[in-house]
Structures
1.
Amino acid sequence: MKINRRQFLLLGGFTTITTGLFGWQLSSANANSSKKGLLLRFVSVADTGTGTKGQYDVAKAMDVYHQKNPYNLVVLAGDNIYNNGEMSKIVEVFERPYQPLLKKGVKFYACLGNHDIRTENGDPQVKYPSFNMTGRYYTFTRNQVQFFALDTNNNADWKNQLSWLNKELSLSKARWKVVFGHHPIYSSGQYGTNNNFVKMFTPLFKKYKVQLYINGHEHNYERTNNINGTTYVICGAGAGNRPVGRSEWTGYSTSNLSFAAYDVYADRIEISGIGIDHQVFDQGVIKF
């Protein structure tokens, strides 16, 4: 069959459109298939409660990330209200900065930082509904991931808390175990590694196969390599930042304002460090 030039051009244009549509469908299918098997996505951030531009910048980046990568859980790892944990500031340092996420039903699960306990030992924050704390230390489970929130302050009820943690870890049937508290265990930042915490926590983590520990206090981002089965993530640059170095076990570190995101699958957790420019600056994997 012969076709004239006009028919050829029309056919060519149709082919281009069809190919373009097919290519879009294929790329969309590939994008969806790359997330096949996703059990849970959550993010973490800490040392947030300033109400300053830095906090709003990180909060905005968290919302932009949510638009493309939906999640409904945020680990809020302490120092939720500066400087003294005053609940009178809750609107300016929590409800307003995270309003877009809160309106979408995203739930924040908090723990107490050293600044938070300066007012009534942090009890008003424990009772604040939007922090979803069922106690000074507590646990909850989301789709094969069990979270254990700790009070890591000096005045914590350490005897009962450690007994509780040992019991809850021993009873856990979850595939993934994530512990979070405000203070670091391993750190290359201002405060450095807490040797008392290393002795206190790491044997439990190793015994019960805790794969991830999340904290703040250091105003930076740092992800360790696997240390005896556990990866440690500091996400304390949620409003301000300080310099950070590197240690032999550091996977990545930066002082950039940022938060961390986690995609949980049956065989791995993919960790991303995300800055206020909305770019992923670090990627790590925890293998099951």
2.
Amino acid sequence: MASSPLTELLGCPAPAKLNLFLHIIGRRADGYHLLQSVFQLINRGDSLDFFLKQDGCIQRLNEVPGVAEQDDLVIRAARLLQNHAKVTAGVSIRLHKNLPMGGGLGGGSSDAATTLMALNRLWNCGLSQAELMELGLQLGADVPFFIFGKNAFVEGIGEVMQEVSCPERWFVVLEPGVHIATPTIFSAKELTRDTKPVRIADFSKANKIVWKNDLQAVACALHQPVQDAINWLNQFKADQKIEADEARMTGSGSCVFIAVSTESDAKKIQENVPDTWNSWTAKTLQQHPFLSHKNGNAE
């Protein structure tokens, strides 16, 4: 028996990412920065509901503080796919926002990627993963990564990626309470733009490479709360009972994180976080959860 056409997709996951490192290795003639990074998917994020409409109208069902509907990457993604695939149907979208904006977690990009993947299924567009990634690049450099759906060694301006194996880790993430505008960080004169390039094979030799976030120093100079949060997390590196990495900022900030080996270690650190910061724990994901979502996949 043929399955009935879909009329809705509910609880579609849009996971966050952490930059395990982020090196700026150069700058193109058009001003875009060349980077190298490892993007790690984690099991915390936003989620979206999609309801099929036959009138061609695309609408958001709920308010998102600080984001007008016409500026929302989710709405822009839906319109982009509708125009590209010449779809006559529309959609109503509800966004359940858990990730902070301006946190360096890729929340908006992830929401847009999930929108493209979900509507490809709901509207029966039939686009391939590669085609969706190409579309996503028009919305932002991080969008193709979330459609790629695997942890990745990322190069170029963020559009060149190779799957990379990341060990299972737990993370404690702090939100310092400041919003950092990405263009401000990338345009700073003090930004390091000549870090020596690394190879994907080097990622397994972490003790021989100085892994860092080149954007972190600029962000900390502009926003003391980011530096305070990093300093606070780094105290746990000296705890003999906890195996912890160097704390660092993700993306262009403002969220900072520390990686530990076990959930109990993560919970131990989080229990001590001062009330002035919002904090949470998360675990590594090996693939985007939409790929195994009961309502469909990216292909």
3.
Amino acid sequence: MIPEIGVFALALALGLALVQSILPMLGAARNNLLWMRSAHATAIGQTVFIGLGFAALMRSFVVSDFTVRNVAENSHSLKPMLFKIAGTWGSHEGSLLLWVLILAAFGAGVSVFGRNIPDSLKARTLAVQAWISVGFLSFLLLTSNPFERLYPPPIDGNDLNPLLQDVGLAMHPPLLYVGYVGFSIVFSFAVAALLEGRVDAAWARWVRPWTLAAWISLTAGIALGSWWAYYELGWGGWWFWDPVENVSFMPWLLGTALLHSAIVTEKRGAFKSWTILLAILTFSLSLLGTFIVRSGLLTSVHAFAVDPERGVYILALLAVSIGGSLALFAWRAPEMEGGGVFAPISREAALLVNNLLIAVATGTVLFGTLYPLFLEAITGDKISVGPPFFNASFVPIMLPLVFLMGLGPFLSWKRADLRGVIHRLRSILAVSALAALVIWYLTTGGPALAVLALAMAFWLFLATLREWAGRIKLGEAPFKESLRRARGLPRASWGMTIAHLGLAVAMFGFIGSSAWKSEEVVFVTPGSSIGIAGFDIRFDGVARRQGPNYIADVGTLAVTRDGDPVTTLYPEKRFYPVAESNTTESAIRSTLAGDLYASLAEPAADDAQEGAWTLRILYEPLVNFIWLGSALLVLGGFLSLSDRRLRVGAPRRRVALPVQGTPAE
């Protein structure tokens, strides 16, 4: 009965979405206030009904209702409760239901918290959001019903993919989806602005907090997924330029550009077309990622293996959404040009170059991701575009961007004195160059690009601290005065400083763990020793252990340095009998200087060598700076989002609108 209630709730949500997609838009066209404000009730009602459907599916997983096909294929009665709950979004159907729930929740959020948004703009925004809901709710009900029954039901299920039975990955999809789908409301704001024919500073201020919320969640989701891949998959890497990794990274890149572009639109009235276009393209890339993951085009640890016919439906939604919005942009955007005039050397110009570099970098990633797919579709040839291409093409584009990130905050709006700014920063440039030379010497050479990138990381870190110190007059005024100024800084300013520092810190981890990683893959028997990065590691054998729903072979590695005990590592190789699948659980000794990383690969195939295993040992310098930097990025985003200026927004304009049967305001 509960699954049928879930289907009925989704059908009601689709009906409300259809009403919301039409009535408020007509109300905005006819200045009918009652019709426009109907979007408030329909947006909240849609969220409530989708939430009921999601709760019904989660209940089916919690009680192991194997009469529901989705539960039977993705759960098991012996599975820990956390992973039963995570199974709700661990399948194609469940994750899509979470997708539409978040989509509706963002619309309801604008309805509830956007009281200062003009009624016509809010009505059009929520109507566009409902168009997207109609598309995905109909896709869910017609092709991907999460409550489809299974008769006769199996005694037990097939279990969730063992790779997904991890605490980190239990939270990874919801965070990613909040980021992906969060950009939908920014897309809706952009289309609504094009329909109204007006973009101004108030519009940019209304858009910024929603952009920031989506960006924060996407940042956290990507970082959590990277951390999961690092410790769970056993290969010792945190990023492989996998196509499904790329489709989450591209919206993050354009979302970053969108945040900076909206600031210029708000403060200077410029970059209006840039901001609108970036809003459209960011969500378009989110839709493209949804199509790639669910169309059957890819085979990946992240991707869902589904019927390609479903991809045709999403491709049609993609064509309508992207094609329609870009056509509208081409028609209406020229009418909205104008705004502040600025010199070639100014903060606006630096942010414009920032947008161009990010757009080019995103295009590079998009090309590398889609080219193999197009080539296979046209010629049947299969090729792989992997890390060498992306590292050689993406990194050189981003280094000038990092330099501009350090320089930009020192530039004035409209017109800046570049010579004066460089003079102020000459000591930081010298220290950054010296740091690069020291690193070069300590690593006895090393990749030139890595050393240059590390110099840029030092530059960004030191320049950001210098800009913050200048704001509070640290060293120029009495300490109490500097402290008072620090307390008085807007949270958005603190957020910018911490986020820029976070990127610099993460860069230390990116570069150190990529350029100076040590790795040993060896065949070992009990008593074997391996040396790496100054550590001596003795393999003491493997013992078998029974888990809740798996059987584990647990290795024991005694680690010493210069004869002194350091730690004992216990890497695991797990077998899940129900899914008939193996996973690797790495053992990691983490310090800020680097990680000592161990994983068991495969036991010896030769019975004569009982107790022999293939062992992977790595030393990853500075890798934990990646997670530290990511945490600072998220913290900076939250501080900016908590800024009172973003929460209050612009004053609401009261406009008298003739409404039939309702007193005009």
4.
Amino acid sequence: MGKAVPMIVVMTNGHADNDASPEFTALQQRGRQKASFEESFPEIKSYIEKNFRVRKGADNTAMCGLSMGGFHTFHISLMNPGMFGYLGLFSAAVRMDRNSNKPIDQQIAESAEVSGQIAAVFNAKPHLYWIGIGKTDFLYEQNKGLRAYLDKMQYPYEYFENEDGHIWRNWRIYLTLFTQKLFR
């Protein structure tokens, strides 16, 4: 009891092209056939702010995700630096170029756009950038590469590593640890 601050949690459908997504319907009405979750996210945030009693601003906004949701969290934060005061990547797919054999830290370093976006995220000084992954997770190397880049650039983040792999038990642990650090 009392380990987490009361908060509103919104769980979106990360497949923005499913009919269940009102944001996708809005994009369709404007002539778009498909939209990525990353593209539709500003409309999702706007919908939440219009329809729920939420505190606005980065100090009151967090985003986290597991696996593909971690991919979304990583990329949405790059596209919207300063929007979130708290970011959580749980067993995140942090890949850049699927066809590249280069480690993620090298891909980031070689991309002026992405390295600039990451710099903008950390220049906005989020309260928390949290990464959790299991030692046997198939995405471990991607997360290791992201951490290597963050370490090289001396960007502050918290890291949690445990046993096991890409499993719900780990994600429940990560969510529990992450939510206790929010909005404090």
